[in-house]
């Protein structure tokens, strides 16, 4: 009984820390967006001044820089759920900040019974794991692929990332050099998926790591 209460408290603390981190990431993304909008008029005035002086190449270069900047702050994915969109795009922004090329596609079915918090626990932990593994590698070896969509009658989530050497399992879970919360994060993914009678699998090999989730959709 005492051990069970300890586990419950650890899970509660973990979820609290996780959601706080997600909220911080989302707020950071929104701050960037507000900053870009605030500077909008300044950008227009700068381009108008260059146009008046006939500096057309300067305007072209300026527009290209603005476009690159906007790509970094604009919403990249729209899944159909605002909270999930915020988490996904926040993580993608973090990956970009760590020189990790991302290829992502995501769309959630409207009849999915899984709640936003549980979806964010699954997606957030898988992407945290993928980003962490990439950061251990030289930039030229990094990559992250995310797919969220339907596979027959089930929601299919797949996250594949660059990794170092093949990771060994211990007690059904992969060992991590980070230890502690990191390994616990993948365990949380598995337990959350089981709540919805779903399946979580992970495959580690030299150079890559793939995590897949299947959730029945009514």
Could you explain how this protein is built, in words?
It contains 6 helices and 7 strands; from the N terminus they run H-H-H-H-E-H-E-E-E-E-H-E-E. The chain has 218 residues and is of the alpha+beta class. Strands 1-2-3-7-6 form a 5-stranded mixed beta sheet. Strands 4-5 form a two-stranded antiparallel ribbon. The mean pLDDT is 80.
Please give a handful of descriptors for the protein shown.
single chain, 218 residues, alpha+beta, five-stranded mixed beta sheet, two-stranded antiparallel ribbon, 6 helices, elongated
List the helices and strands and how they pair.
Elements (H helix, E strand, L loop, with lengths): L1 H37 L1 H13 L3 H18 L8 H16 L4 E5 L9 H20 L8 E8 L2 E9 L6 E2 L2 E2 L6 H15 L3 E7 L2 E9 L2
Parallel strand pairs: 1-2
Antiparallel strand pairs: 2-3, 3-7, 4-5, 6-7
Helix pairs in contact: 1-4, 4-5, 5-6
What is the structure about, briefly put?
With 218 residues, the protein is α+β, with helices and mostly antiparallel strands.
The SSE string, one letter per element, is: HHHHEHEEEEHEE
Number of helices: 6
Major sheet summary line: 5 strands, mixed
**Widest β-sheet, arrangement of strands:** 1-2-3-7-6
Which ranges are low-confidence, i.e. pLDDT below 50, for 5 or more consecutive residues? Answer: none
Mean pLDDT: 80
Estimate percent helicity.
40-55%
- The separation of the N and C termini measures 36 Å
Task: Tell me the overall shape.
Answer: elongated
Report the sheet-strand fraction: 15-25%
Q: Helix/strand/pairing class, anyone?
A: alpha+beta
Could you tell me the number of beta strands? 7
Give me the Rg, rounded.
20 Å
